[in-house]
Write a structure and sequence with these properties.
single chain; globular
Amino acid sequence: MIITAPRVITALPGAPVLEPGYVVTAGDRITDVGQGPPPGSPDVELGGGVLVPGLVDLQVNGYFGVEMQAAEPDGWATVAERLPGTGCTAFLPTFITAPVKRLATALGFVAEFVPGRRWRGARMLGVHLEGPFISPARRGAHNPDWIVPPAPGAIGELLDAGAGLVRLVTLAPEVDGGLAAAGQLAGAGVLVSVGHSNATAAQVAAAAGAGARMVTHLFNAQPSIKSREPGVAGQALADPRLTSGLIMDTHHVAPANCTLAFAAAPGRVCLVTDAAACAGMPPGEYLLGGEPITLPPGDGVPPRRADGGLAGSALRIDRAIANMVAALARSGNPNGAGLAEAVAAASRVPADLIGRPDLGRIAPGAAADLVWLDDGLRTAATWIDGERVYP
């Protein structure tokens, strides 16, 4: 298949935007990409917008009325099959804080039906455990009664129950046993992320020394940067070992702080949705981690807990790109400058972070996961493994 587009963003470091560009696929792989006329008659000619790699989201609590933590196989299928409509072609279902036994049961349930199961939709890359080894002082929407220290036995129980499915764990390194837990998880091949944490910069640096490579939802559920104490966010931006997730819905983080993150840590920010079950749904009552949340009216407005605190988001990953591009333009990057960086932050950067160099880029040998964004940067078509799955 040969696809031509007015613009093609490969998301490779330093690669220019190809204007016009083409992509050639054979089966489930990309075989050629270039600028100018294609090496044959195109099968698909895109009349506008931009062709980008499939988008990768490392934090999806739920979507389309489905909470991943409590869903049956049909619910997982619903999310996987509908996510390509947002441009997402690969994702990490996220389980937030719950009793360890309950998390182990949920992981064991998923381990029974996910391996070998292939939906006609987004790839499931594993599971992200956001808790329960977090700081009660920075719990956010997490139930404080279920937060526990990261004992080696509890970690082992979760890893065993997941049977290789646990790919990312968010923890607070400053709690008792936190650094040892980071080392234990990293040694087991799990991506460790600092989050829901009250850590100092020195404690975050120590976590990176123990194997942590990520910070969960930068600026949220962590201390503010102070003049003499950078805290989690300051260390995340300064430390080349760390890549930060960022919820760019314009509500969780001020757009100016999002542009600050991109400027301070180029290539080390990945856009995430932190979507809850209410994402893609009308206003109303939903669940996050078994706790009630309310989605108010309004485009992109996040859900709230009963006490008014934020509780995940209703964000689309393509909308995160559009929001980021708009913020960069307002900060002095006119005429769409920053589009390539925003696309990479939602594709190649998270794919590399999770150890999937075959995803999130348009390059020979990579998976033929492609997304056509229209002129408003909303998903118009999506291909996974070379097959058009949306619309």
